[in-house]
Amino acid sequence: MPPGRSAVDVEAFPSELTSGKRFVSWRYEERDGERAKVPYSPNTGKRASATDPSTWATFELTRSYAEVAALEGVMRAFDPEDGLVGTDLDDSLDPTIEAPSVDDLDPWAAEIVRRTDTYTEVSPSGRGVKLWARGTLPGHGRKRGSIEMYQDKRFFTVTGRHLAGTPRTIAYRPDAILAIHRQVFGDAPDPAAITVDRDNPVPALELGDDEVLRLASDSPHNGERFRRLWTGDTSYYAVMGNDGESEADAALCELLAYYGGPDPERLDRLFRRSSLYREKWERTDYRERTIALALRDKTRFYGDGIQPPASGSDGAVGCACECCPHDDGPEVARLRRLALDRDDLVEAQSSIINAQRSELDREREYRAEDRRLR
Length: 374
Prior knowledge:
Elements: E1 21-31, E2 34-40, E3 57-58, H1 59-68, E4 73-77, E5 84-89, H2 107-116, E6 120-122, E7 129-134, E8 143-144, E9 147-150, E10 155-158, E11 171-172, H3 174-185, H4 209-218, H5 223-230, H6 245-260, H7 264-271, H8 284-295, H9 329-373
Parallel strand pairs: 7-11
Antiparallel strand pairs: 1-2, 1-3, 1-4, 4-10, 5-7, 5-9, 6-7, 8-9
C-alpha cells in the first residue's frame, strides 16, 4: 500500500459498519519481536483504547487522518450498544489470490463463513477473513487457534475488501453465532459457580418466587413483554424463518434475573413454570448456557440502591407499603416506590432499544431478501 493511503474500499462497506464514532487508525509496529497492529486516535494522535470511546472518531475523519498521517488503515471498535459480533478466521486464505471467494478459503473456514452467511471481508494481510453479524456471545471463550470472536473490548481492522460469495449486508445470526461459538469454545461455565457477594446483598434475592412473578407481570414498563413470554408467545423474536424460541427463552430468563436476582436455581425453577418450558430445556448444555447468558455482565437488579427498612408488619424484608410501621414514614416509602419504578423504567428502556434494533434488523433482512428474489 502506498504511504499515506488508507487501504479501505469505501464503496464495499455496509452502511451500518461505518456509522457512529467507533473508529481509529492503525499502523504496524514491532512488539516483542513481532509485527503488531497498533491503534491511534484521530482525536489526539496518540494510542487509542478499545475501552475508551473518547479516543474513537467517525469513519470519514479516521480515514482522512490515516491518509494524512501515512498510517496503514482503519479499525472499528466493538461497541456493545450496536450488537455486532466479529469473527476472525486467521491463516485461512492464500494471500496471493487477487479476488478471493468463499471457495478459496480453507475448508474449516469456508464452513464457518457459509453457516454465518453475513458480510465478510478479507483482512489487510490477505491471509484471513473477518465476519460481521448481529447477535450475542456467551461470556466465555474469545480466542482459540486461528479463530477469534468478539463483541466488546477489541478493535477489528476494516478494509471493505468484500469476500465474493457472501452477502453485502450484516445479517442477524444469533443462532449461528452461538452454535459456532459452542463448537469452538465448548459449553458455558456451570452457573452454579456464580457467586453472590453477601457483603453487598441484592434486594431482589429476598423476594419470594410469586412476588418476583407479580412484579414482572404488573410492571408498567416490562409487564406486557413479560406476560407475552410467560404465556409462550415467541412471535416477536421470529425472524426470517427462525421460530424465535431460543431468543424468547433468553429474553424471559433475562427478565426473571432482573426481578429475581442472580440465582441460577431460581431462574431454572421459574422458567419451568412458564409456557416456554419444553423438552429442550431438559438439555443441560442448553439450559445452563441460556441461564449463563441471562446473568452475563448483569449488575443491576430490581431494588438495587434502595436501603431496605426493617421488616414490616407482614414480615417482608424491604416492604414499602404505607400500612407497615416504618420509622421514616409514608413519604419516604413513597419515594422508595418511585425509585423502584425509575429503575424498572431504565430496564424497560434498555429492552425497548434492543427491540427496536431487532426490528431494524428484520427490516434490513426483508429488504435484502426481496432484492435477492428480484
